[in-house]
């Protein structure tokens, strides 16, 4: 059985009828791992893995808005003065970022003459007549050393006030990054939440028997291949500083956890114990990870230092414990376990070792991901024959179902807790999708001619 149903199938049996733990599919990620291991044909008798540093990937993601918020902020983004002198400008990227969030509606600037370039040149009456609540203006000026001075202002037409004004001195190669920074500033000023347009995402693509771990900007641009393998790759996880990725590879015909530096391309083995090594999750301090190991016979969660030392078993139970996720304060772990007879989500207090069950609605709840704001967690639940994302609040225990696909899995929460990136199925292949934490904004993300899965949203840049 493929997908999340694999765990449900095994865990629904009475405990006395179960096969040995080492033969049970351990959660939805390990179910996929076992399926992929059977499907992937070895093309070479030797190790079939290639490591790349900043190698451009061929397939760029395409992101489509398929549902927006009920109320949007009307914003006019005026092309910056002198922007036409540069093939890759700034304002087009800023507008695309804000529109993609589903929270903003772009207001047409055509016909406004002269175009304002500074806050004091914005005639608020003209813009309010067009329905714009806020206006972005700016300018780009070439400097003698080849760099460019980029300045912008954000103007509130209702209050007739300048909300933000910033400048950046950048190279032309930094235009996109600068545009993302500007969009982040605008987003935070108008919503109160940090923008995530400057973040990166990681994901796995599959074409035939070729697997790639790819890192791209949050809008899908500039994909870079980190790892290419003829054996399955799984479970990418970002370090808190955004400089390293942990992931699982089957290149040696068994799951092994690696850590790879994105700056140097250097790779180290984190966990290669007897049996299965899987489901890496970084602690907020970046010094330790939680991993699922079967080295002692059953599937259990261990802590391990980032250099592979100091392995410490956290739990002892007769059931399957897997898919750990640290809470943002680093004091607790969320995890999936069938210790109660069906797969449910639990919380382990790392100090007291107390374990608390968190999910009670339904017989199948897996893949918990703590939200960075500390208020709750996202997870996968089965409803009938469908697997969907849901979010649960710690304080109220209220559960809201966010998606309605047939096989929605592998959730990854944005650093501002407002969007969830996840894997979905469409037309017989894997795609990525995103949904807001209130379920209103929906995005569809595809890569041409490739299955795409296992998304991981990187941290805010430091």
Structure description:
The protein contains five helices and 31 strands. It is mostly beta strands and 462 residues long. The strands form seven sheets. It has a five-stranded antiparallel beta sheet, with no helix packed on it. α3 (91-100) packs across α5 (175-191). The model is unreliable at 1-54 (pLDDT under 50).
Topology diagram in text:
Elements: H1 5-11, H2 27-39, E1 49-56, E2 62-67, E3 73-77, H3 91-100, E4 104-106, H4 124-129, E5 134-142, E6 148-156, E7 161-170, H5 175-191, E8 200-207, E9 210-217, E10 224-229, E11 233-238, E12 244-249, E13 256-261, E14 267-271, E15 277-282, E16 288-293, E17 300-305, E18 312-313, E19 321-326, E20 332-337, E21 344-349, E22 355-357, E23 365-370, E24 376-383, E25 386-393, E26 399-401, E27 409-413, E28 419-426, E29 429-436, E30 442-446, E31 451-457
Parallel strand pairs: 3-4, 3-5
Antiparallel strand pairs: 1-10, 2-30, 5-6, 6-7, 8-9, 8-31, 9-10, 11-12, 12-13, 13-14, 15-16, 16-17, 17-18, 19-20, 20-21, 21-22, 23-24, 24-25, 25-26, 27-28, 28-29, 29-30
Helix pairs in contact: 3-5
């Amino acid at each position: 059985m493929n997908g999340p149903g694999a765990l449900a199938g095994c865990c629904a049996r009475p405990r006395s009828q179960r096969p040995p733990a080492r033969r049970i599919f351990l959660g939805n990620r390990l179910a996929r791992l076992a399926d992929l291991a059977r499907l992937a044909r070895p093309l070479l008798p030797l190790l079939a893995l290639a490591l790349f540093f900043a190698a451009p990937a061929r397939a760029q993601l395409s992101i489509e808005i398929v549902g927006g918020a009920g109320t949007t902020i009307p914003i006019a983004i005026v092309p910056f003065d002198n922007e036409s002198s540069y093939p890759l400008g700034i304002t087009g990227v800023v507008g695309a970022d804000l529109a993609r969030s589903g929270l903003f509606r772009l207001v047409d600037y055509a016909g406004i003459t002269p175009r304002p370039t500074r806050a004091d040149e914005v005639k608020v009456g003209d813009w309010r007549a067009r329905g714009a609540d806020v206006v972005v203006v700016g300018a780009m000026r070439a400097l003698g050393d080849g760099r460019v001075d980029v300045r912008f202002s954000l103007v509130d037409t209702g209050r007739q006030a300048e909300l933000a004004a910033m400048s950046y001195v950048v190279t032309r190669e930094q235009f996109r990054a600068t545009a993302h920074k500007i969009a982040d500033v605008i987003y935070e000023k108008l919503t109160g939440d940090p923008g995530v347009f400057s973040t990166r995402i990681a994901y796995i693509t599959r074409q035939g028997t070729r697997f790639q771990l790819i890192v791209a900007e949050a809008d899908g641009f500039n994909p870079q291949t980190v790892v290419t393998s003829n054996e399955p790759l799984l479970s990418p996880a970002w370090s808190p500083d955004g400089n390293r990725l942990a992931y699982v590879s089957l290149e040696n015909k068994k799951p092994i956890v690696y850590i790879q530096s994105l700056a140097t391309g250097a790779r180290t083995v984190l966990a290669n114990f007897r049996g299965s090594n899987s489901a890496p999750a970084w602690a907020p301090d970046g010094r330790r990870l939680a991993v699922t190991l079967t080295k002692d016979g059953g599937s259990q969660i261990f802590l391990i230092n980032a250099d592979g030392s100091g392995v410490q078993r956290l739990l002892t139970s007769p059931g399957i414990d897997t898919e750990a996720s640290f809470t943002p304060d680093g004091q607790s772990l969320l995890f999936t376990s069938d210790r109660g007879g069906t797969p449910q989500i639990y919380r382990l207090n790392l100090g007291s070792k107390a374990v608390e069950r968190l999910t009670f609605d339904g017989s199948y709840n897996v893949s918990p991901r703590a939200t960075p704001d500390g208020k709750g967690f996202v997870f996968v639940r089965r409803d009938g024959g469908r697997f969907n994302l849901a979010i649960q609040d710690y304080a109220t225990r209220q559960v809201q179902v966010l998606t309605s696909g047939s096989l929605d899995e592998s959730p990854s929460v944005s650093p501002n807790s407002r969007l969830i990136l996840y894997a979905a199925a469409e037309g017989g292949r894997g795609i990525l999708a995103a949904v807001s934490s209130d379920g209103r904004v929906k995005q569809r993300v595809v890569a041409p001619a490739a299955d795409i899965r296992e998304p991981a949203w990187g941290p805010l840049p430091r």
